[in-house]
Fold these 2 entries.
Entry 1:
Amino acid sequence: MWLSLFILSGALSVGAVVGGINPYDYIGNKAIAEVASEQEEPKPEVKIGKPHDIEQALPKNTASGNFRVFLGEAIKARNTGVTIDAEGNAIVPAGYVYSFHNTPNEASQGSNKISEILYIDKFNPASAPLTKYLRVQSVVDPAKVTVTPFLIKVKPEEGATLNDRVTGRPDQYKSADKDGNATFVLLEDKNQLYYGNSNTELYKVDSTVKTKLTDAEVDKFTTNKDQVIEAKIVLDGETAIRQFTLYVETLKVSGVNPVLESVETRRDKDNRYGNFNLKPTIPALLAAGENPDYYTITFHKTTADAIANKEALDITKPIEGAHGTDVTARISYKLAKSANPIVSTAQKVKFTIIDKPTIPALPNVSYCDSKIASYSLTIDGQTTVIADGRPIATEEEMAKPDFDPKGKYSIGYFNSEEDAIANTNKIVGVEVTVKLNEARKIWTRLTSLEDKNFNTAFFYASLGYDDLTTNTSIYNEYIYCNSEDSKNNEFVNLYNLNSYFTPQKPYIKDNPKEENLDVRYYTSLENAKNNNGLSREEASKFKLVLGAPSTTIFARVIMKEGFSCEAEGDDNIKSIKININVTPTVSKYLYPSEDKDVQQLCFDIDENKIKDVELKVKNESQYAIDIQWKIKVWKIDGKGNSYFTYDKIGEIVKVEGGQIGIKSVSVAGDYRADIVFSDTPYTDKTEKKCDISIYWTVKAPPVAVVEDADETGMISSMEVDEKGYAPIVLGVLDGGSKPVTDGYEFAIDNSAFQPSSQFYNVPIGEHVAYARNVKTGCSASIKFSVFGYPKYFTPNGDGYNDTWNIPGLRGHNEARIYIYDKSGRLLKQLSPHTEGWDGTWNGKQMPSTDYWFTVEFVNDYKTPDERNGRKVSYKGHFSLKR
């Protein structure tokens, strides 16, 4: 196993670089802690200096109209070579990169960088001075950006020398090859110093010695060091000098392969593992004095990954590594200016596991007595086992000034692994108290006092039951059922049988932790009597032969890990027969609904009856199956308790392989199909069969509803306008209590179906609403009527609501309205076209009370309908309020 990312939990693991510092000494080392603290202090803010303005004379007439400026002179003055401003601040401090831009916005965004050689064709001196912008950015914190303007001025012609006219050249950067060399081409530098002037000589400068370069060296100059080049330009008896540097870039790494140490956190058959913090190794990878912030350093499992720069490890948390393995560091320089900067993958970080002091396997300290609630157990007897012959120092011995820790150890006991690792909150004394049915995990720490390395382990202190009983199974035989596609997997987990042997809710009066009960299994009665049980691995993967005669397994109840209690005596050995067979492969098949578990009955409007739903089971096997259809039925027992069973529906149906079994039902309810192979297909040695059940819910047909309709289906809404029209909203009760509309389309009378459930301008009168399921076609209808009238009126002469009429009938010229008092006396007959009743009879004001009305009119639908022309009558009542 290799490396796996690991979030350190509980265990300290701080590696030491190169020198082999013990991680726990590292944590306690005051000097190291102080250094770390100092490194975390905020660094002083770096002030960015102001760039120099550049002043350059125009070329002589031979090059009139062209103007070439070296912008690098803004950060390194032409005549003095100064790289700081007047206040002493570096213009480009260490750890920063720079670029030039035409506008402040471009400089701020770092876009559209311009070359350090600014070339202006047909330059107009009248436009000078020019403003350019220097962008300076930190490589450590890219958000730190400073943008500063500087000027390019034209020096007056009077008194201008060749030195004032010559353009400087930028420094060149190349990465060193494997031999440490870099090759530069200097011909352009020679020709472009002064507008193509050929009277230029190049020299390499070594201290005070200058050596002229040959033409071959100008074409191809190879060096293994940073080399200053001086250019000498001669024109018309004047001489100008410029210098630039050729930089050979190499990575300043240490070449060291740091070694990290860790205590062992786990081991397997192949290796030992620890947790390693890679961050502290970074300074050791670089040359002395190098700032790690200026480098990009990542770690990779393999050198190939480091070269490809993929699968970088997350070093924000410790990683797990095996003893003797390593990771590769990939190092690159953030400030490199070469076109192809060097990347180093030559260094590794090696992992070493410090040997832990070995702790032998610890026996549990357990007691079994069902009659007591708690018990105090002595744990100091474990000390002899843990020491394993090693000298153990007492607290008194370690406290002496002349104590020699060489070859000595200490032992402590704790209530948690965290405390054991941190060596805090030790258990005082030699006894621990446990409750009945409790297994308390006690941690111990064995520490080498010489090197502070330690190991931890745990054992259980427990109080269990001494009167455990193994139940007799409620079944004399148990069958394991495999699916057909896994029929060759004939291993079973015997622990699935535990509930047949363990008591139900044992000892609940004292402690209801029945999960502390377990079962040990045996392959023979003799093995059971000798307590020669199957291992946990053997019992959880027990081999059976598919379809073979049953195998007898013996069992005895025990308490789980941490307890040493079990049901004693031969009478507590119980048995059960087990075999293994195959469950038929079937599927629900061919449904119009997306939900195969839920079906819905439909009402056939044309035939005026409910259409059956077909429940279908497809036999995916090659063998015949038997299907017994059932329906869920609720019943009441003799005590009035409600319970359900599944009643059979018809006889068992035999379905051949690949065919479909169908059951038509017309009643809503919960249905089940129980399926077994008609004959056991894989053997003739057992008749035990594996069954499977499939379930459906069949919902009642959908019910169309009209919102705001009363129990008679009438919409008596004041939203009926003067033309006798009203808005209507439909819905569907689809098995729930609230109307739904999703998945349905709607219609009223003879109109076309529409996806919206809202209808406008529905005339007064009787109507039929329709709802239809878009996917299944299942539909429902409901009759309703539209009729609206005022529920009261106030004839008080205020000009508002002074008369009572039914405005919605104004579209029916033939309509007549009759108003009655409580005794049935006719008070008023009126047309909907009149102002209405003013609340008087024979000139007398009628009292405030309820009055009744009847109205008759003829249906007049906007669409063809057989009810057109039919006489309709409504009755109702309203209130007069004064």
Note: The two ends are 95 Å apart (CA to CA).
Entry 2:
Amino acid sequence: MKFIGLDVSFLILSTLTALWNAGAQDSCADRCGELLGTCSCQVTCQSLGICCPDYTEFCLQISPYSGSLMGGKDFLINNTAFKASSVLKCSVFNIYRFKQKIITSGYVDNDGKAHCISPLLYETGFIPFEVSTNNGSTFPYSGTWLSVHHNKVSDGEKCTLVNETKWQYYGTPSTGGNLTLTWTHQTLTATHINIEVWGYQETGDSYSENWMAEWKYLYTLAREIPNTGKYSFIPVPTEGNYSAWHFGILRIIPSKYFDGQSNILSIWSSEHALAWHLEKDFRNDPNAWASAKCIEWDRKEELLPNFLEEIIDCPCTLAQARADTGRFHTDYGCDIEKGSVCTYHPGAVHCVRAIQASPQYGAGQQCCYDSTGTQILTHDSTGGSTPDRGHDWGSAPFLKPPRIPGFSHWLYDVISFYYCCLWSDNCDFYMKRRPSSDCRTYRPPRAASAFGDPHFLTFDGLNFTFNGLGEYTLVESDLTSLRVQGRTQQAHLPNGTWAQGTGLSAVAMQENNSDVIEVRYSEDLNLEVLLNQRVLSFSEQTWMDLKGLFLYSTPDQNITVMFSSGAGVEIRESGGFLTLTVLLPEKFINHTRGLFGVMNGNPEDDYTFKNKTTMSVHASPQQVFGFGASWAIENGTSLFTYDTEFLLNSFFHGEKHNASFLPVFTPYEDPADPLVKEMLSLCGSDPFCRFDVLTTRSPQVGNSTRLSHQNHKLLVEHLKPVISCGWLEHPTNGRKNDTNYLLGSTINFTCNVGYELTGSQERTCQVSGAWSGDTPQCRPVTAIKQVIIIGSVFGIVGLAVLARLGYLCRK
């Protein structure tokens, strides 16, 4: 493979390499620019591993490339050797936090490799850093470090606090005994370690300019203990007043460092409530202490802005929630794929969180569902869906509250749950401030897909086959400058020759000025993901917070891109090609064009050419081929990477739509062909499966197409709008028999003894979105009515007795 950015030869690359070896202090721009010009320099030098994307500094390749935003991770610089006498300083740009630099000390090991320690940060995503070899006089080397949400780091970076009961209740009745801290001791090379307690706070007025987030060293829990990976202790009173710190974390460091020293090699525990070290008032009467804290929190909430008005509504069903992958993602604290351990949501089997924080306040939405797929509401259960003032995943700009990933959420939403629900009996206070949204305003997204040879299913439901050879616009939108582009390549026949059909081999996408994501299929590598034209590894992280988007990869290499607009793109390998699904929220209606058509609910205009002319949905395959060809992209608008000779010659210098390639438009089903019988058995009536079996001569490809087609139809089914009539309250002094408020649900009401029902005993959710009948009420039975009722009862009983006596006498 030739790693070149444009049409340059290996002679030039060799010259560049020689220049690199000759003078490492020369700028990349000088070395590249003289030979290639700045346009070529960016990709070519970058491919050599010596220049950053802006080709002004030497680019560093590091391992590992990611770690917790809490810092303390030792990372190695792989592609550059340094002198042992070099005095290393590592500078990280804290982008949002006053844009200041954080300087940490690095070191050179015995092999001449440089090391840096990641610093404590208050943001996630790729963070630029620089390295100096002269004690900070100049910083000629640069790279990027991926800062990750603390709950999404690898197990080797975590330590865990456990107790025979529940450590988060430590100090409450029926708790006590040893607490045990466990960690992966190989992470630290030190023989002896210290264990520290750190607390988190956000000072200043919330939502104001004087607000500041802070992690602060509180005290050292243990000193000079062996690094065995386990430490047990019984909390004892400490000197100093730490009663204000109810939420914190433990840090393990080599004993050679001084107490609270910042940005050093360390392991951090999971964040947790510091119940085990709270003051005597808590231990003497936890319920009273926590009740006071809950009421104090409730009063503070009263003064804060109402974030509930701007967060997205929850999907109505579990199926919708799992299908809307552009706007909702699995909540790691309640995942049906991992056994539905829903600690904070009893009765739920799965929860999702809104991916994007709300625009003004950075708030988050959480939606939880029971085993029937029905949303659980806090009005009905403490396990209900609870929105968050601080989005768990944070939100840029991280400087503004409450946007610190994970920790603002703990401070505003989790520790208050401890106060009100876990440590006292005041959950009604919490649920009043964190009520579930129902789904009356939720609108599911529209889905479009492409798969197989390739077949297109538009947002409005039009189905067609376009197997052109080239690079094409799948969908673009003037609403958010969204662009999703696809590249096709010829399929191989089983005998090794080329088929007269194509399939998606790469997809590239961008929205506004977001990062560019490209996913391409490689027979050797399966799916390869590129971030801004550089190959991205998922070996350490499966979830990445990037510029303008989130990126997620499943263990089986399904890639999901979630843009800030709520647009979602799903890509997976299927049958040797890519299967693509694009999901767009309702706001994109009448704002799309491309091969996936105009999203407006009307398939009649989906064959809209690039010049805005249209043709009938009954067009011939040859006419559809012309429609597809009109959406070929141009080099000036391409988002693709051309880093091999094949890609350069075939797609960069070649035609964007290869007019000389003519596919099979209608494959012939020869009754004498033994493959046809197998095709009929496999595909049934699925036209796309039959098409692909015949054009590729591969039942495996046809079966992949059939499954992709089924998955799309199931997705569309799950995303159908659902009518909700909204929550119904049970009458005071009465009960209701159900908590399902969707179309067709019927709820019955009954009253407690001594009360009678007025209004409707039964109410049904109607197509209009309104409940039938009238609001039920349970009114006390009056004294007169009671006398009448009692008299009637006795009268009936007396008549029954007289009738019985009369019968016996006659007998």
Note: The chain is about 20% helix and 30% strand.
